[in-house]
Design a protein that fits this description.
heterotrimer, A alpha+beta (246), B mainly alpha (464), C mainly alpha (461), A: 246 residues, alpha+beta, Alpha-Beta Plaits, four-stranded mixed sheet, two-stranded antiparallel ribbon, 10 strands, 17% strand, globular, C: 461 residues, mainly alpha, Formate dehydrogenase/DMSO reductase fold, two-stranded antiparallel sheet, 17 helices, 2 strands, 68% helix
């Protein structure tokens, strides 16, 4: 493997304003079925990236806190060993990938995911006639009965890699073609995506700085030892009360 | 088919009268060998006292030096105090082969008193709940339980176990004590008349006898399980940060059943080899106990594996640290020894018919099991006492402390305690016949040989 | 056993073959009703297959529902057969004789019911799962894709299929002498059918010896399988670090002892049914119920101890998610009711009842108490699985509730119909009480006189 890569992301919780732009971008990039009201009421809605909102304090002194949660692409992903058919496994670029064709829908992986970021297709996905041409041709439309989850927009990673190879150049850090849809859509630069094997990438530098002794970085549910490739940077707020949830 | 072959439990001492006479005679004079053994045990016990004094010199503030001492108490709880179960369980199942060995197993109830005494210093060593240690006696985050709850409850249960053990022994030996009373005179008669507590063998007394034995047996078993539950958690698991293993108390108790059987097997062998009880303790007893030991060894593996796979599969840091501490880290040699002697050796030896159905086979395996249990308790308690008192109760932080090797005081303590067990046991046999006379005589009523077509068969009666 | 009845071989043949040689009046209507229930369940499965898992009540995060409950329940029931047959055979307990075959048959049909409950139907894409042969078959080996042997869902079908094979063999070996009797009593194609199945059994000493050896060997070999099956089923849950309530080392022994509890209770229920339906009260005596009642006291109490341990160590952690899950399980409305009902029906009602000798010796009360155990044990699995998934999680605001849909209920009902149907049809084709075993027991029965009393005894080799 020439130029090994390992993809990672940082999420600066301090910057997140909970605008849900990433959710919409993800929805349209990855052909995620439309999560309408009945689906939400059935508790079967799908959002590969979701914004969890926490209220803090009592009225009128109340604050909303947001945290985007999506697949953490763990190095020791609990979902991987339990899949009976290798539908989910770890690839050589540190991504936790889902092979739709192999998936039989046993849902053991969902139960074993402490972040609850894996989504199951309970129904055959349907789009209204007007949206048929909106589907992204680079992404498989999943049938019912299988799992799906955030892929770090692997189709974009693959395409830029392919094009870079064709043109004989290196994949650029921060290339908008490389970045997942959510990163491109984020208005506040909350999400930073890149290759941690490249010491000059923004994400490597952030990781080095923030995961050090006095940095803001942490892993979600770090006590489980799953080794996520997503680093969260905690909120800096002098009014914040007590330790945050994670 | 039978005629004299040992495996049908047909003893050479054939009638009830002969059994009584033979066994009663053996309670009278003590051989030279007996006094040598008793004297030797007493000498060892004295060494143990010296060891204890040295150990006290280290003070009780730090837990590290007391690891081997805790392992010792756990070892005796696991082996000697579980031995009465070998009398209780087959008695409830009405198995005939238990009869010659049930008394030898019950006498270990007295050892419970010794272990209770040994246990007392540990109560002072155990840190109280004030330091945020986990405990069974939780009550929400705000602890409303007294800080010494674990100490109190475990002491009570250890005491109850010792008392029930002695009570069981006494009740079960009432008819035999009465026989001794009736066959002796003078001061001895008066003493045994007291001990036999008016036993005359009326049908009413026998009726109560069977019920008392059943109830005390069941109660002993429950107390044993509860004591293992309390002791293993409060004096072992809760000292290790991040160790949460719901199966551990049950494993501790299941291991103790295995070790209890092994203890009795070894005692059987000694009684047969050195005390001339070969007419009573025959192949049948070794075979019966051997099968039990085999099954319990398989159980050892299953309990261990059930814990292991859950702790290992999830790769949670706190659980990996526990595995590191006790299985693959500094105590790996102890763990491997325990694993081999408690499971691998019993499996591969006992699966083989000629070994299972012999005198030496089960004895050898049982000796191995006892040694394995010793190492198993060492790897658990010694390691737990080295990490006790860590700041963070959720997870151990590397690096782990190196293995704590026994020093002179530990060796003296261990030797002394084992000598003490031997001494207590030997002295008890002076008062109580080591072979159960009444159960042995009862067996003669229930077992007959009858012709059947062209052969002769053994007919076994079952009391209801 | 005090009050046994000595019967001649002729009487034994007549009584025990009655269900096979002629059909009892109630048999056909009962079979038809059960068949209808089963077919409705099959139709419900067809609908599920057509529409997808959306027609169930499953949602996020409750990904496993009553299908898994039913699966664990039937696996639990299936432990009865081996418990009764193998362990009691190895320990030479006399009272096992009339019970063994019914228990083994219950094992086989409930194992198939377990397969029908979850592994074959609850996948998102059963056709991709290799329906009806599970995904453990390496279909794609040519492309270098093998099943993931690290997954509990590969251990699971492997263990269950091994268990199914072993227990079918177990039944068959014990059935051969009885098949030969049927062969000799019938004529025409029926005789041909049994003669093929009886493998040329003539009852020669060599054949008897081989049959006995095969029985003992299978008993010993099937025991590790029996232990492994439910351990592995429990690991489907316990290896998950994502579900706090499941991640407990005690699960394997806890599930096993629970399985024995429910399985032995189910055997007692079937025993009562055998007396009521076929009138075999000369074979199934109050003594038999007494013995199984005593066994149940021990098993039930041990089970309760493990339940207690599991619960105590969930609290022992004092960690938020675990406590939240227990709070849901014990104190939140629908689950709290189920929790209380579960405790009463699985333990606090039946076990104290069995302490009374009159209850153990009464068929009616044994029927009621053992049925109650299985109601409780079904609920036990329900409150382990559903609130275990439906808990408040650290990072999700999405915890709702779960109602089994009508489709799920019909399919679970069908598994019950399937097991009863299997038992009834088996009893119509093969004798449900082993004739040769009963006869052996009668021959080996003796009495010993002690003073003025007679004590029942048996011949030992």
């Amino acid at each position: 493997m020439e130029g090994r890569q390992k993809w990672a992301m940082t999420v600066d919780v301090d910057r997140c304003i909970g605008c849900q732009a990433c959710v919409i971008a993800c929805q349209s990039e990855n052909n995620i079925p439309i999560s309408d009201e009945p689906l939400f009421n059935q508790r079967r809605a799908m959002e590969w990236i979701r914004i969890e909102r926490y209220w803090e304090g009592e009225f009128p002194d109340v604050k909303a806190r947001f945290i985007p949660i999506f697949c953490q692409h763990c190095d020791d992903a609990p979902c991987e060993p339990v899949c009976p058919v290798y539908a989910t496994y770890h690839n050589s670029e540190g991504l936790n990938v889902q092979v739709y064709n192999r998936c039989i829908g046993s849902r053991l992986c969902v139960n074993n995911c402490p972040y609850q970021v894996r989504y199951f297709n309970f129904w055959e996905p349907e789009w209204p006639e007007s949206l048929q041409n909106q589907l992204n041709p680079d992404v498989t439309v999943r049938s019912r009965g299988i799992m799906e989850k955030c892929t770090f927009c692997i189709q974009r990673i693959r395409r830029t890699g392919r094009e870079a190879k064709r043109d004989g150049r290196k994949v650029e850090d921060g290339d908008r073609g490389l970045n997942p849809a959510c990163v491109n859509a984020c208005p506040t630069d909350t999400l930073v995506f890149g290759d941690v094997m490249d010491p000059d990438s923004r994400v490597s530098k952030l990781k080095e700085k923030e995961m050090s002794e006095d940095g803001r970085g942490y892993h979600l549910l770090g006590s489980l030892g799953t080794g996520p490739n997503v680093i969260y940077l905690k909120k800096v707020d002098e009014h914040a009360s007590g330790p945050t949830h994670a | 088919m039978r005629s004299g072959s040992a495996d049908d439990g047909h003893t050479a001492v054939s009638g009830p009268v002969e059994v009584s006479r033979d066994l009663l005679e053996r309670t009278r004079p003590a051989s030279r060998l007996f006094w040598w053994a008793a004297g030797g045990s007493a000498a060892l016990l004295a060494l143990g006292v010296i060891g204890f004094v040295i150990r006290l010199g280290d003070g009780i503030e730090k837990t590290d030096p007391w690891g081997y001492y805790a392992a010792l108490v756990a070892f005796l709880l696991t082996t000697a105090q579980a031995a009465p179960m070998v009398a209780i369980a087959p008695r409830l199942a009405k198995a005939h082969w238990r009869r010659p060995i049930s008394r030898a197993a019950e006498i270990f109830g007295v050892v419970g008193v010794l272990n209770l005494i040994l246990f007392i210093p540990l109560v002072w060593v155990l840190p109280d709940l004030g330091d945020g240690r986990r405990s069974l006696w939780f009550f929400g985050e705000v602890r409303s339980m007294p800080a010494h709850m674990p100490h109190i409850v475990t002491t009570i249960s250890m005491t109850a176990l010792a008392v029930v053990g002695c009570a069981l022994l006494w009740v079960s030996s009432l008819p035999d004590l009465a026989s001794i009373r009736d066959n002796s005179g003078g001061r001895r008669r008066r003493i045994f008349a007291k001990l036999a507590n008016g036993w005359h063998g009326t049908s009413r007394q026998w009726f109560t006898q069977y019920h008392r034995l059943g109830i005390l047996g069941a109660f002993y078993f429950m107390m044993l399980v509860f004591t293992h539950f309390a002791f293993s958690v409060e004096f072992g698991m809760s000292l290790v940060p991040g160790w949460i293993d719901a199966l551990f108390p049950a494993t501790h108790a299941a291991n103790s059943l295995q070790a209890g059987v092994a203890t009795v097997l070894v005692v059987m062998f000694l009684l047969r080899r050195f005390c001339g009880f070969g007419d009573y303790i025959e192949l049948d007893q070794f075979w019966g106990l051997g099968k039990l030991l085999f099954a319990l060894s398989l159980l050892w593996f299953w309990f261990w594996f059930s814990s292991f796979i859950i702790l290992w599969y999830g790769k949670k840091p706190n659980e990996e640290a526990v595995l590191d501490l006790m299985m693959v880290g500094p105590y790996m040699p102890a763990f491997v020894t325990a694993f081999v002697l408690n499971f691998v050796a019993p499996l591969f030896m006992m699966v083989w018919n000629p070994v299972r159905k012999s005198i030496w086979g089960p004895t050898l395996v049982a000796t191995g099991v006892l040694i394995g249990t010793l190492f198993d308790r060492i790897r658990i308690y010694v390691s737990a006492y080295t990490v006790a008192g860590a700041e963070d109760k959720h997870e151990m932080h590397l690096p782990l402390p190196p293995a704590n090797l026994p020093d002179l005081a530990d060796v003296l303590l261990w030797v002394g305690a084992l000598g003490g067990v031997a001494l207590v046991y030997l002295m008890s046999t002076r008062v109580i016949p080591v072979i159960n006379i009444w159960e042995q005589k009862e067996a003669l009523l229930y077992k007959i040989h009858k012709p059947f077509h062209r052969t002769e068969v053994l007919v076994l009666g079952k009391k209801d | 056993m005090q009050e046994h009845i000595q019967l001649t071989q002729k009487e034994i043949n007549r009584d025990l073959l009655s269900g096979v040689l002629k059909s009892p009046k109630w048999w056909l209507p009962a079979v038809l009703v059960l068949l209808v229930v089963f077919l409705i369940g099959a139709a419900a499965f067809g609908y599920l297959l057509n529409k997808g898992l959306g027609v169930t009540g499953l949602n996020r995060p409750v990904m496993w529902g009553v299908y898994l409950v039913s699966f664990v329940f039937w696996i639990g029931i299936s432990h009865a057969g081996i418990m009764i047959s193998a362990i009691l055979r190895l320990t030479q307990a006399e009272w096992r004789r009339p019970v063994t075959r019914a228990a083994e048959v219950l094992t086989v049909f409930s194992l198939i019911a377990a397969l029908l409950s979850a592994p074959l139907v609850h996948e998102g894409r059963p056709w991709r799962a290799g329906f009806p042969i599970p995904w453990i078959m390496p279909w794609d080996f040519a492309r270098g894709i093998w099943p993931n042997i690290r997954s509990p869902f590969v251990w699971d079908p492997s263990a269950i299929l091994t268990y199914l094979t072993a227990s079918s063999l177990f039944i068959y070996v014990a059935l051969i002498p009885d098949l030969a009797i049927l062969r000799d009593r019938l004529s025409g194609w029926k005789s041909g059918f049994y003669s093929v199945l009886s493998l040329g059994w003539r009852g020669s000493p060599r054949q008897w010896k081989l049959q006995a050896v095969a029985g003992i060997l299978l008993s010993a070999l099937v025991l590790p399988v029996f232990v492994s099956v439910h351990s592995i089923v429990s690991w489907d849950f316990a290896v998950n670090i994502g579900a706090e309530g499941w991640h407990s080392t005690i699960f394997a022994p806890y599930f096993i002892i629970g399985a024995i509890h429910s399985g032995v209770a189910a055997v007692a229920t079937v025993m009562v049914a055998m007396v009521w339906l076929w009138g075999w009260d000369r074979y199934l005596r109050p003594d038999h119920f007494d013995a199984i009642g005593r066994l149940l006291i021990v098993v039930g109490t041990t089970w309760f101890f493990f339940f207690f341990l599991e619960f105590v160590f969930a609290m022992y952690t004092l960690e938020g998610p675990e406590l939240a899950m227990r709070d849901l399980q014990v104190f939140q409305y629908p689950w709290s009711i189920l929790f209380v009902v579960f405790l009463i029906t699985a333990f606090f009602f039946p076990v104290p009842m069995w302490l009374l000798k009159n209850v153990r010796r009464s068929m009616f009360w044994m029927f009621v108490t053992t049925l109650s155990v299985n109601v409780g044990m079904w609920l036990e699995r329900f409150i382990i699985i559903i609130p275990g998934l439906l808990r408040r999680q650290p990072l999700v605001f999405d915890w709702g509730t779960y109602h089994p849909s009508i489709i799920e209920i019909l399919m679970v009902a069908a598994t019950f119909a399937w097991v009863l149907l299997g038992l009834l049809i088996f009893a119509r084709i093969f004798p449900l009480i082993p004739l040769f075993d009963i006869k052996e027991g009668m021959v080996g029965r003796e009495e010993i006189k002690i003073g003025r009393r007679k004590v029942a005894a048996s011949i030992r080799e």
